[in-house]
Design a protein that fits this description.
With 83 residues, the chain is mainly β. The chain has a single domain, classed as Ubiquitin-like (UB roll) (Roll). 10% of the residues lie in helices and 53% in strands. It is built from 1 helix and 5 strands. Strands 2-1-5-4-3 form a 5-stranded mixed β-sheet. Strand 3 and strand 4 form a beta hairpin. The longest helix has 8 residues. The protein is globular and about 45 Å long.
């Protein structure tokens, strides 16, 4: 059985999309299943304490050199501003 790794990269809408602006996260299986469901989930980034509404997502798989299955979830989102 190969190891599964779930990796998300979030880009904030209206900001540049280069590598310097990427907000990467390693997800557990529960959070990755939430991201894979139809619709646009709300996610919270613990690194900056902000919440984002996902507006689009792209998903692809990669086979690691160690035989692991890596699922990449690249998404765009709008920051949810508290009122």
């Amino acid at each position: 059985m190969s190891k599964k790794i779930y990796y998300m990269v979030l880009y904030e809408n209206g900001r540049p999309t280069g590598v310097n602006f990427a907000m990467p996260s390693v997800l557990d299986e529960v959070d990755s299943n939430k991201m894979l469901q139809p619709g646009m989930p709300t996610i919270e980034r613990k690194a900056n304490g902000k919440k984002y509404q996902v507006t689009s997502k792209r998903i692809f798989n990669y086979k690691g050199i160690d035989g692991s299955d890596i699922l990449f979830i690249v998404c765009d989102g709008d920051e949810i501003i508290k009122k």
